[in-house]
Amino acid sequence: MEKTTFNFYHMKKIIIAVLCLSMGWAAAQKKKTGANKSQNYKSNRVSSPQKSHSKNQPLTFGIKAGGGLNKISLKDEIYRNLKSKIGFYGGLFVNYSISEQIAVQLDALYQHFGTKINYKEDTNVKGYWTLSHINIPVTFQFKFIPQVYIETGPEVNIPIKSEQIITDKAGHNNIVEKVNFKEYTKGAFFGWNFGGGYFITEKFSVNLRYSMGITSPYNQKEDHNGKKDRAKFRTGNLQLGLSYHF
Hints:
Elements: H1 8-47, H2 53-56, E1 59-73, E2 80-83, E3 85-97, E4 102-112, E5 114-119, E6 122-145, E7 148-168, E8 178-180, E9 189-199, E10 204-213, E11 234-245
Antiparallel strand pairs: 1-3, 1-11, 2-5, 3-4, 4-6, 5-6, 6-7, 7-8, 7-9, 9-10, 10-11
């Protein structure tokens, strides 16, 4: 099977382009609303008993961490059952408030990701796939009230570890316990996320987010029937965690 190489130089160009477009749009919106915001600042400060985090600091940095329920899905009616697996994530973020209602956020997260597997033809053969990666989402946040927001945006995932671990309780001699899937894994795969959050205080917030894969994390490979089954794989991740804004 031919390996697919990934050019990290081009990926950096894509990420930088997205950030430039986002910040350019943010600057335009900031300039447009700057006059109105400065005129209304004192009245908003007096009338609103609970301040919005974005009012005080337009540009904030922070850390976030939490747990998730993740899965690699595939319609496989013959060989495998794929089930959800608990994972975790953690990393950094930068958030820029365009206005009191709109913000854009860039995350850089490590995600310990995977899915449980078992083979239908032999229930004694079980295990899991690991697909740990760096998750880089760019999300646009919309605030209905100062403490609550919803968010959505694209993301890129860069795999770090990709392998299969099998436990064979029947003692088959032809079962390989550990297989490195790195050569079958793409250098990057893309997704889209949506979710929401709530500011507990001006520094702490809780966030719920679901990320769904748009492209397959694995290279195409023909099975014994000549079908390219790996092209059908997709990822899904439901995560819940806390964020701290410096």
